[in-house]
Specification:
The structure holds two protein chains of two kinds. By secondary structure, chain A is an alpha+beta fold. Chain A contains ten helices and seven strands. In chain A, 41% of the residues lie in helices and 19% in strands. Chain A is flat and about 80 Å long. Residues 262-272 of chain A have low confidence and may be disordered. In chain B, helix 4 (102-115) links the parallel strand 6 and strand 7 (120-125). The chains are: A alpha+beta, B alpha/beta. The complex binds guanosine-5'-triphosphate and magnesium ion.
Chain lengths: 298, 180
């Protein structure tokens, strides 16, 4: 049976937790989220979010009995030579040459690892640690993804030619929770995305400030009429991404948050216990007997 | 004559009305309202329950069970408290094929538990759907750690499942009596 959804409603951390607790074997694919223009209704029958369908696969994780054994991500070069270079075990030149040779000889990662160990380039431990680091960095990346569709398929085996390094998910989950706490902090700092921004001073003061491309895009939309949410949408950013940037701009004193034109109304949650009838055992037993006999054909 | 009631709750479109329809001996007195045809809700279905659903099971001359279904849209949740009053127990219906509603299911569950500490079961509905999550996975997704809380597979249109869900709720009620 499928385990399908998207990260907006079921987070990477929740997924890993589920796979860990149920000791699953299988593969988890995360896809590019393709806009459909349609909306998806959440369970409150009121809130709508963009409905995304699965586009091309962006990342894949393989699990065996609840342990992560392999991860690849489109945006992260997963060739063993590159992995070893990123962890400092090979320099750039070595990595390039080794990769060329491996590709010319059509060597698998496993074959390459063996010949590197035999040639005393690296140790087995280097290889395992480097792959582990690579795998974990992919997972941490995934934990910041917020809307991509995913699918878990049972029993799918990890690619035979790749080196599998089993990793206990619990540590990753704990670390991931820390990352998410950072997001919660940001949410506390900027709780309401319906607020707008305005420049603290003359926008020309931005001239001497070094901003990244993403920051500039946000700055371009700053106007008391635009809510932060609208800016995020215009810049195609997730809530966390926009919060991070707005937070930095606020900290730097470049912008100020201004009151939204329409404040969202929130009804207080009324939760007082209601009177309870304690039924007697006889009543419950009669109900059971009755319900057992109901056999309507629809 | 004694009447007792159970509440069938859960997120929007999870199958509450269907569940009650399947087992009620009367036509469900439903307060359905058509959904505006071009709204997002209408991609899901054409009608939603506005105030409540109301079904009945007559046990004998002096005992009647009423089944109340809560409205799915949160803007009607002022009804919840009224419906929860005096209930024997409740069923949380979840559309197992819609993870986007799990968070709400969890929140509804918490709210009802706060209203009254009665026994409840969770029905992993729409198990006939190709994308349905398994009950075991739903348990983890909804963070129902308490092993005593039953998570049951359900197809709300199928009397066998509906009967089983209600029976399991009644067994839970008995178990609770035994433990007190
Ligand atoms: N395949 C399948 N469809 C179901 C099942 N249960 C309900 N449905 C369908 O799901 C849709 C929603 O069911 P309803 O019974 O109206 O759900 P509800 O929880 O009463 O909805 P609201 O009152 O709007 O919150 C309807 O189209 C039902 O026919 C099920 O077990 N399997
Ligand atoms: Mg209904």
């Amino acid at each position: 049976m499928a385990l399908k959804g998207n990260l907006a409603v079921f987070t990477t951390t929740q997924l890993l937790n589920l796979i860990n607790l149920s000791k699953r074997s299988g593969s988890l694919t995360i896809f590019e989220g393709v806009e459909t223009g349609e909306k998806m209704m959440l369970g409150d029958g009121r809130t709508q979010i963009d409905k995304l369908v699965a586009g091309k696969p962006l990342a894949r994780l393989n699990f065996r009995e609840g342990k992560l054994v392999f991860a690849e991500m489109q945006s992260k070069d997963g060739h063993l030579a590159s992995i070893l270079q990123r962890s400092g075990k090979l320099n750039e030149e070595q990595s390039r040459l080794i990769r060329q040779r491996a590709e010319a000889l059509k060597m698998s990662d496993k074959g390459l690892a063996l010949s590197l160990i035999n040639a005393n380039y690296v140790t087995q431990k280097d290889i395992i640690q480097s792959i582990q680091k690579h795998t974990v960095s992919i997972v941490f990346d995934l934990m910041t993804w917020k809307r991509e569709p995913f699918e878990f398929k049972e029993g799918d085996q990890a690619p035979a030619s790749r080196i599998l390094v089993p990793i206990d998910l619990r540590n990753i989950i704990i670390e991931g929770t820390r990352i998410q706490n950072e997001q919660l902090e940001l949410e506390k700092e900027i709780p309401n995305l319906d607020m707008a921004l305005r420049f603290a001073e003359d926008p020309s003061s931005f001239k001497n400030i070094k901003l990244g491309a993403n920051e500039w895009r946000v700055v371009g939309f700053i106007n008391p009429k635009n809510s932060i949410r609208q800016i995020a949408k215009a810049c195609n950013m997730t809530d966390t991404e926009i919060r991070r940037i707005v937070y930095a701009l606020l900290q730097a004193g470049l912008v100020q948050m201004v009151k939204p034109q329409v404040e969202a109304k929130r009804r207080p949650d009324i939760r007082h216990p209601v009177p309870r009838n304690t039924p007697d055992r006889d009543v419950v037993n009669r109900l059971i007997t009755k319900i057992k006999t109901i056999n309507k054909t629809p | 004559m004694q009447t007792v009631k159970m509440v069938i709750t859960g997120p929007f479109s999870s199958g509450k009305t269907e569940f009650i329809k399947t087992i009620s001996e009367i036509d469900v007195v439903s307060t359905e309202r058509s959904i505006t045809p071009d709204s997002v809700e209408s991609q899901e279905k054409s009608e939603t329950t506005v105030a409540m659903d109301f079904g009945r099971i007559t046990v004998d001359n002096d005992l009647v069970l009423y089944l109340f279904g809560t409205p799915g849209q949160r803007r009607f949740d002022f009804m919840w408290e009224i419906l929860a009053e005096g209930m024997l127990g409740f069923v949380v219906m979840v559309d197992s094929s819609k993870p986007e509603t799990f968070r709400e299911a969890r929140s509804i569950l918490e709210t009802f538990r706060a209203y009254a500490p009665t026994p409840y079961v969770v029905a992993a509905n729409k198990q006939d759907h190709a994308d349905a999550w398994k009950p075991e996975d739903l348990r983890i997704a909804l963070r129902i750690e308490d092993e005593n809380v039953k998570l049951l597979p359900c197809i709300a249109t199928d009397i066998e499942y509906v009967r089983e869900v209600l029976l399991e709720l009644l067994y839970s009620i008995l178990e609770e009596m035994d433990s007190n």
